[in-house]
UniProtKB/TrEMBL annotation:
InterPro entries registered for this protein in UniProt: AraC-type_N, HTH_AraC
Keywords: DNA-binding
HTH araC/xylS-type domain ranges (all copies): 274-350
Official protein name in the record: AraC family transcriptional regulator ligand-binding domain-containing protein
Domain of life: Bacteria
Gene3D superfamilies: Homeodomain-like (1.10.10.60)
Length: 363
């Protein structure tokens, strides 16, 4: 198997920083990268590290090594300590599914949601607390959720007597994440109950996936009738239940907070360099990290983006190299992963795929 020269270089830099002997590149190794024919690429959804609050403790309690699980999912370890770290929703969904499989905990996502508090929503928690009713709080939750978790979608369908609070994960690859859906539904339900001071009981909770072997955790965490193998994922409640007023709400304060969040929806506050690094960290494991793809994710042109970075003496290409070297250093610590596993996490394909060419400019 041939190893791409760029992969060798990135890992060599990381090894050098760890005071290990650097890898020497054989003349037979190639720097060619896979050629990818792209017709349409869905925008990658990002979420904040706060989505996995409590993961480290839960993983250890069910016999998992949280550091290893996070690494193998292609996620940065810093997300366990920094709730504002932006990561791929697809990678988080992969982590939850694999954690459930390896621990034999079919309700892993629910267990993670069980320890969640309203405060984990950050400033969004303050907004929903100041809404006059549960319905208004849900509408704000649905509108601003993208600032907390860009992969979780909430929609309210008023069916007359009943209202469906639909839960959907915005995954780049078509797939149904049982753990992610159940966790999203549980967090939404717990938010409503916290605002209603536990005076909110849905009619039922519907999931598209099948029934687990045990409902013990589901009954404890959700505390409602659960229907599996349904045609949609949703919390079903009586419409009048959403008219329940939220005690001590201050609508004026809520309006001021929403103006602040509306501004964030229009103008992200991060510097171009920080936004590029966040996007690069998400794109690298997919093997599709190029200057063009980074610019596409940020909704701009590569030349415009490079001009913005030039003021700080940077470019998209140099930031890609820097982030890849940092990731390589993280993955190599402890010797948990093999060289080829690290290469895969850094977005390098196998030797057979590498010989396909590099016309797409993948970094």
């Amino acid at each position: 198997m041939e190893v791409p020269l760029q992969m060798c270089a990135a890992i060599s830099i990381a090894l050098a920083s760890l005071d290990f002997p650097a890898l020497s590149c054989s003349p037979t190794w190639t720097s060619t990268m896979p050629q990818v024919a792209v017709i349409h690429k869905r925008r990658i959804s990002l979420t904040r590290g706060a989505t996995l609050a409590g993961y480290e403790i839960l993983a250890r309690s069910v016999g998992l090594d949280p550091m290893r699980m996070v690494k193998e999912a292609g996620l940065p370890l810093e997300l366990l300590a920094n709730p504002d770290t932006l990561v791929s929703v697809d990678s988080v969904a992969k982590l939850l599914e694999e954690s459930a499989r390896r621990s034999n905990q079919e309700a892993f996502g629910l267990l993670l949601a069980e320890g969640r508090r309203l405060s984990n929503l950050g400033v969004l928690a303050a907004v929903v607390r100041e809404e006059p009713t549960l319905r208004a709080a849900l509408e704000s939750l649905a509108r601003y959720m993208c600032l907390q978790n860009g992969g979780l979608g909430l929609n309210l369908d008023n069916m007359g007597e009943f209202t469906l609070i639909r839960v959907k994960l915005q995954l780049r690859k078509p797939a149904h994440s049982r753990q992610g859906i159940e966790m999203g539904a549980a967090i939404t339900l717990r938010t409503l109950r916290a605002l209603a001071r536990e005076n909110f009981d849905p009619v039922s909770i519907c999931f598209c996936h099948g029934r687990p072997s045990s409902l013990e955790v589901h009954n404890r965490v959700l505390g409602a009738r659960i229907d599996f193998t349904h045609s949609f994922d949703a919390i079903v409640c009586r419409s009048r239940a959403l008219d329940l007023p939220i005690e001590s709400a201050d609508p004026e304060l809520g309006a001021a907070l929403k103006r602040r969040l509306d501004q964030q929806l229009i103008e992200p506050g991060d510097k171009p360099r920080d936004r590029v690094r966040q996007i690069v960290r998400v794109l690298i494991p997919s093997g599709e990290c190029s200057v063009e793809r980074v610019a596409q994710q940020l909704g701009t042109h590569r030349r415009t983006l490079n001009r913005q970075l030039a003021y700080a003496g940077e470019s998209v290409s140099t930031l890609i190299d820097d982030v890849r070297a940092e990731m390589a250093e993280t993955y190599l610590v402890g010797g948990v992963l093999t060289l080829y596993q690290v290469g895969d996490l850094l977005g390098f394909a196998s030797g057979a795929e590498s010989r396909a060419g590099s016309a797409d400019g993948t970094a």
